[in-house]
Design brief:
Strand content: under 5%
Number of helices: 13
Radius of gyration: 33 Å
Helix content: 55-70%
Number of strands: 2
Shape: flat
Structural class: mainly alpha
Strand order of the largest sheet: 1-2
Order of helices and strands: HHEEHHHHHHHHHHH
Largest sheet: 2 strands, antiparallel
């Protein structure tokens, strides 16, 4: 049969006749879509969860268990046994002996800082964000101290308060003014709060201006076309969009009441005035000393009591911070 005959036979095949097809292989579905999504989600959260287990649970497990142990010095040496209340009672006795000043001093500092730098930084950040006169220069002046070592800033600030200002006061009035960081505890507290406020402004302004810089320009331009002035723009556009950042600063600042040192250790070392010692400073100092036995009301906090204090702080701060965050989010300005 020649090639022409084959072509004629192929051309005579009817159009409606089905051509044979190779069988298709359909692999069995081992994983459903829901299972794949669950695996993907598990892999995403595995790293932070593992980090939490290693760097919090594993690292702090001894410290957590220490809060429920008591060490006594007996004739045969140190004896350690379980006691689920003794360390917490010791912390309470310590705070009562100090008239709760380690907490009240830090709370006063937080409230003053909140109503000064916490509020002022928002307005000044808006000033910088709108690029008003000398805004760039002010931004550099306020943020530059954050780039310098805290030890250097402390030495400069202490020299200014204890030497420069008294010398200038004497030249102006002829009267002797004592060191501002040593004599009167109230005066020293004011200087320390001023130090904390001034050098915290740089970080706040940097965060707020960064958040404001992410605001969609079309929203601002649309509002300006509608005749909105800078004050209305701040109240109805800028403030609602930066409100989550404000909530974050407020909540973290509240948690810092129990850990804030007010720079006391940098200024005074382990010998800060008792009237100004915050709870964060007390915890730091007594952790350095590392006492395991003694009377907490007279000699300070023991290591086991410091561990108990950490658990109490976590138990107080966690629900308080979550409640405050929820309240501020609910009462704050709406983006809509």
């Amino acid at each position: 049969m020649n090639n022409n005959t084959v072509e004629m036979e192929q051309n005579n095949v009817p159009d409606n006749m089905e051509q044979p097809t190779a069988p298709q292989y359909n692999p069995p579905k081992i994983l459903t879509r829901k299972t794949k999504r669950l695996i993907f989600y598990s892999l995403i959260v595995a790293l932070p969860f593992l980090q939490f287990l290693i760097f919090y649970v594993y690292v702090n497990i001894d410290s957590i268990l220490m809060a429920f142990r008591v060490t006594k010095l007996e004739q045969g040496g140190y004896v350690e046994y379980w006691d689920f209340t003794a360390n917490f009672i010791g912390v309470y006795d310590f705070l009562v002996a100090r008239q709760w000043k380690p907490i009240t001093v830090a709370a006063r500092a937080y409230l003053i800082s909140f109503f000064t730098s916490g509020i002022f930084s928002i307005f000044f950040s808006y000033y910088v964000y709108k690029k008003f006169m000398f805004s760039g220069l002010f931004k550099v002046f306020l943020y530059l101290p954050s780039m310098v070592s805290s030890v250097v800033l402390t030495l400069v600030f202490r020299t200014i308060c204890n030497s420069v200002i008294p010398a200038m006061y004497y030249d102006a009035t002829g009267e002797v003014l004592g060191p501002l960081l040593m004599t009167d505890p109230n005066q020293t507290f004011t200087m320390l709060v001023g130090y904390s406020i001034f050098f915290a402004l740089g970080g706040h302004i940097l965060m707020y201006t960064g958040t404001m810089g992410g605001i969609n320009e079309s929203v601002v331009e649309s509002a300006q076309l509608d005749g909105v002035n800078p004050i209305q723009e701040f109240i109805f556009i800028t403030l609602p969009l930066i409100w989550p950042t404000f909530v974050t600063f407020t909540v973290t600042g509240l948690a810092g009441i129990f850990t804030n040192q007010l720079g006391l250790h940098t200024f005074f070392g382990d010998g800060a005035p008792t009237e100004l010692a915050t709870l964060g400073y007390e915890l730091f100092v007594w952790t350095k000393k590392g006492s395991i036995v003694g009377n907490s009301s007279d000699n300070g906090l023991l290591l086991s009591e410091i561990s108990a204090t950490g658990l109490v702080i976590m138990a107080v701060i966690l629900p308080t911070a979550m409640g405050l965050k929820k309240l501020l989010t609910k009462l704050g300005p709406s983006v809509d």
